[in-house]
Amino acid sequence: MPDDEGHPTVEEMRLGPVLAALADPLRRRVVRELAAAPDGTARTCSSFALPVSKATVTHHFRALREAGLIQQVSRGNSRMASLRRADLEQRFPGLLGMVAAEPEG
């Protein structure tokens, strides 16, 4: 069962929702940027400067969180996002590497 913040456990992560979340180029960009950062790096959602409204940014990060790609933690008025690198590698070996290696655009 997902936790109170909507994060599925490793066992609950399913390929369909993960691929659906990664189908969007902006969400893949977020994952690539987090994958390029040192493990454990957390960033505010606004730091990605996505070219969409705040409501759409919220939607994108919810899709990533509910699929299990990112972990989000509230910090005051903002939310910090970090990549669930170890969980993804355990559940879907090699997937993160393929996404990270994909050229942007």
From TrEMBL:
Keywords: DNA-binding, Transcription, Transcription regulation. PROSITE patterns: HTH_ARSR_2 (PS50987). InterPro entries: ArsR-like_HTH (IPR011991), HTH_ArsR_DNA-bd_dom (IPR001845), HTH_MetalResp_TranReg (IPR051081), WH-like_DNA-bd_sf (IPR036388), WH_DNA-bd_sf (IPR036390). CDD domains: HTH_ARSR. The keyword Cytoplasm does not apply. Pfam families: HTH_20. Residues 7-103 form the HTH arsR-type domain. Coiled coil: none annotated. PANTHER family: TRANSCRIPTIONAL REGULATOR, ARSR FAMILY, TRANSCRIPTIONAL REGULATORY PROTEIN. This is Helix-turn-helix domain-containing protein. It comes from Streptomyces durmitorensis.
